[in-house]
Design brief:
Helix content is 31%, strand content 30%. By secondary structure, the chain is an alpha+beta fold. The chain has an 8-stranded mixed β-sheet, with helices on both faces.
C-alpha cells in the first residue's frame, strides 16, 4: 500500500495502523462512543476495523480512514475518515467523520484535520464534502463551520437518527 501522509506542520494524517489499537482504546471516551463508534471499543473490534481500513486503502475502496497525529512522535490524538459512497450521498459527495480524544479537544486540531482531509478528498475526485452532525453535538457543528462548511439539508438515517448536514464545495480546493 502506498503510504499517504498529509500535514500542515501541526497535524499529520496517515492511515490507521495496527499499532494504533492501544492508543485508540485508551483515548476513547463516552463522547466518541456516542457520536462516532456506536459502542465501546474492544481490542479485537478495533483491530478488525483497522484491518478493514487497510484493505480499503489497498483496494482503493470508498473508505479512507486516517489517524490524526501531532508532534515529532506522531502521537495519535483521534481519527478522521472519508467515505466516497454511503447512505444519502450523491455521486461526488464525500462524507467526513472525525473525533478527537478528550485531552486533545479544544485546540483546533479537528478543524486542521478536516481541512487536510478535504484537500485529499478533492485530489481524489470528490466534488463536495459533507459532515453529518446530530443536533445535540454542537462541538462537531462548530468544527464544520470553522472549516468552511455551510449548513445544508436535514436528514434522517435508516435508524431514524436526525442529522444536520454541513456542506463544502471541493472543486476550488482541487485546483
Amino acid at each position: 500500500m502506498h503510504e499517504v501522509k498529509l500535514s500542515d506542520g501541526i497535524v499529520t494524517l496517515s492511515p490507521l495502523r495496527l499499532d494504533d489499537v492501544e492508543a485508540h482504546l485508551t483515548g476513547e471516551d463516552e463522547l466518541l462512543v456516542r457520536w462516532l463508534n456506536g459502542g465501546p471499543g474492544t481490542c479485537e473490534g478495533v483491530e478488525a476495523y483497522i484491518r478493514h481500513c487497510r484493505e480499503q486503502w489497498d483496494s482503493a475502496g470508498p473508505l479512507r480512514a486516517f489517524g490524526i497525529r501531532v508532534g515529532a512522535d506522531d502521537v495519535l490524538v483521534g481519527t478522521i475518515d472519508l467515505r466516497f459512497t454511503g447512505e444519502g450521498l450523491s455521486p461526488g459527495q464525500v462524507n467526513v467523520a472525525y473525533g478527537l480524544y478528550p485531552s486533545w479537544r479544544g485546540r483546533g486540531l479537528a478543524t486542521r484535520a478536516v481541512l487536510l482531509a478535504t484537500r485529499y478528498a478533492a485530489s481524489e475526485g470528490g466534488a463536495e464534502a459533507v459532515i453529518q452532525v446530530e443536533p445535540a453535538n454542537p462541538a462537531s457543528a462548530a468544527v464544520a463551520q470553522r472549516a468552511g462548511f455551510t449548513p445544508g439539508q436535514q436528514t434522517h438515517s435508516k435508524d431514524g437518527t436526525h442529522f444536520d448536514w454541513y456542506i463544502r464545495d471541493l472543486r476550488a480546493a482541487a485546483q
